[in-house]
Amino acid sequence: QVQLVESGGGLVQAGDSLRLSCVRSGRIVGSYAMGWFRQAPGKERAFVAAITWPGGYTKYADSVKGRFTISRDNAKNTVALQMNNLKFEDTAVYLCAATRTEYGLSVDAYDNYDYWGQGTQVTVSS
User: Fold this and answer.
1) Among residues 37, 47, 59, 101, which is most buried (max CB within 10 A)?
2) CA–CA separation, 82 vs 89, rounded Å?
3) pLDDT digits over 42-58, tens only?
């Protein structure tokens, strides 16, 4: 049904930028959210950013506010994560996720998401 494929990861130096993309296949009925999480080896999966349909509500982790921007392209069924001023702490596998939404659902909780991509590696050298 719903499939998510991430791309855009790579090797960069601290201070550089990357733009990640998540392409959605399949249909999600009604209101939904798509978000980005990241997981480094030995670390818990952490929320990065999310955006909702149809309202366009966005939410960011405090650690990326002012540096990362999440956006959507409805015509292409994609969500992008523009990452600026990358730090070595940003090194992780970045995962795209999607979920149907309802009132009160926390879009920063990974347990609330139903669909996941395979991830794309972001490595930032200091």
Assistant:
1) 37
2) 16
3) 999 999 999 999 999 99
